[in-house]
Amino acid sequence: MKKALTLLLALFFLTTSCVIMAKPALSAADEAEDTWSAKAPMQEARGRLGVAAVNGKIYAIGGGAGGIVGPILGPYRYGGTGLIRNTTEEYDPEIDKWAFKAPLPTPREHFGITVYENKIYCIGGDTKNGESGVNEVYDPATDMWETKTPMPVPTRFPTSNVVDGKIYLIGTRYSGHSLNQVYDPETCTWASKTPPPTQIGSAASAVFDNKIYSINIDGFVQIYDPANDSWAIGAKAPSTEAPGQIYPLDTATAAVTSGVYAPRRIYFFGEAGTYVYDPANDSWTVGEAMPTARGFAGAAVINDTIYVVGGVIFQYSGGYMGPTAANEQYTPIGYGTVPPTNPTWLVYATAASASAVAVSAGLIVYFKKRRHKTSFAS
Questions:
Q1: Could you tell me if residue 6 is inside a domain?
Q2: Which among 271, 276, 277 has a CA at the least distance from the CA of 290?
């Protein structure tokens, strides 16, 4: 009987501990929402690069290291002066350090980047010879690259997102035509889908509830539903024009929070500020602007904190455009709060609570039996 009591007590303390720890524990420093902190910069300054996260590490790939001094007009406003890179760098947030990895086989910038089954797909973009359809895949586990079937139509500035095992490359050719090309990594084949209603200005896009949200050149949200191959238009972003900027959020990058550590939102980081979109009610709020104002950066999310890496700094009054190695970490609005409907911790908390109730009931039965036996004996 004593052994049974010991076991019940052990189970009670274990399950009640599970209830307490079901919600992720965060330090006080982690909970400073809507704030930025500077992290170790890349070893090579680059803009118009690709950034992605795999297994807690961040990868900054390709991009352009060129700049311009003088009037920022016409194609120079976007393209820079060459110096297109094939650099791959890996960032470890735990130790705040960067390391060089196997270089991108085809040097390029303005390409689509996304992660599928822990591999990074870098598709399309600009090379020194113009638009490209090249499709190259990086495996961080082996530090090796593999070439896959190229895009049917070469594209610069494609947004790249995974939905239901397919990679959607949505964007424009240099000629301005909108495209929606879909790649199946399992069969290495491509298909064409309905293009966006209006031109997408940059690679600022994210997936939310299996729909793709992109910003068009006028600042409106364009929402693509792969399930029925259809488009919808969401609310326009707040006024975001920086001095001399042609279109709002035209050079932005995007990231989405999961709802585990911070409320689910899509964050757009641009030269003029941080803009937060809530797909649930099609509304916008404004967050704290990046310390280093820049465009054409890349963004990656780890545990619902967002790292904005690299980019291009524009000084419109002086006619300067140049790359940056900046790496800045953003703690989202509402960080440290877990919505009541969040499934990740709620399921475990419910299971743990049920176990605690069961163990408690066992203890009650045990002590009732003990009391009964004591009374009978006396």
A1: no
A2: 271
What span, in angstroms and rounded, lies between the C-alpha atoms of 265 and 255? 9
Task: Give the CATH number for residue 314.
Answer: 2.120.10.80
202: helix, strand or coil? strand
> pTM to 2 decimals?
0.82
Rounded Cα distance, 284 and 219, in Å? 12
Q: Does residue 128 sit in the same domain as residue 45?
A: yes
User: Which SS3 state, helix, strand or coil, does residue 95 take?
Assistant: coil
207-262: per-residue pLDDT in tens? 999 999 998 877 889 999 999 999 999 999 886 555 555 555 888 999 999 999 99
> Bridge-partner residues for 268, per DSSP?
254, 275
Helix (H) or strand (E) run with residue 76 in it:
helix 76-79
Query: Which residue type occupies 136?
Result: E
- Domain range for 288: 34-331
3-state helix, strand, coil in the chain (%, to 5): 15, 40, 45
